[in-house]
Amino acid sequence: MTIQPDTKVLTIPGAGTYRIDGVRSAITYTSLHMFGLGKVRAKFSIASGRLEIGESLADCHVSATIAADSFTSDNPKRDRDVKAPGLLDVASFPQIEFTSTEVREDKRGIVLLGTVVMHGVLAPVQLPVSSWVARNSGRIQVLARADHLDRYSFGITGAKGWVGRYFDLDFDVEVVRAAEN
Predict the structure, then answer these.
(1) May I ask the CATH architecture of the domain 16-175?
(2) Domain ranges in the chain?
(3) In angstroms, rounded to a whole number, what is the distance separating the alpha carbons of residues 15 and 55?
């Protein structure tokens, strides 16, 4: 589950705690369906999350919660089918959780290594960050991509042939510095 975007060396924004702005953030899902003949695009919403930026990459940590029932593809029947027990089963598994285990720099740039818990199954992921832009308002926009994730590794095996086995996630996340207590 690795990703290979073109990435440049990125500067770490100022140390501190940031919260994910769910209104200004989105996750785009892309997969194939109908035996690979069509492409499906959908979005998920980020319910909550935090970005802890330390003095070095080793001191950084990211966590995010995605609302599984926020899946929307502009096709109501597909959305119902994806949210149903045969696939995401959002009634039993309402959240998708990401927690970083390491933030490091490699030939791709900054990479978030971590785990995703989806459908009750924990799996490792790598999220290379393609852009990390600090704004004057204390906000940071982070773009990352996870490609070729295997839904079977999360125990989501329903609708074989109708729903693609592999999917990509593009993250467009905006974080804002959390208020100091």
Answers:
(1) Beta Barrel (2.40)
(2) 16-175
(3) 6
Pairing mode, if any, of strands 26-33 and 16-20?
unpaired
Cα angle for residues 154, 156, 158 (degrees, 5° grid): 165
Q: What is the pLDDT of residue 158?
A: 78
Q: Integer distance in angstroms from the first to the last C-alpha of the chain?
A: 38
The pLDDT score that the predictor gives to residue 10 is 53
User: Which pTM value belongs to this model?
Assistant: 0.83
Query: What is the spatial distance between Cα 30 and Cα 32, in angstroms, rounded to a whole number?
Result: 7
Is the per-residue pLDDT at 94 higher than 90? yes
The tokens describing 105, both together, are 């720099």
- pLDDT tens-place string over residues 123-150: 999 999 988 777 767 788 889 988 888 8
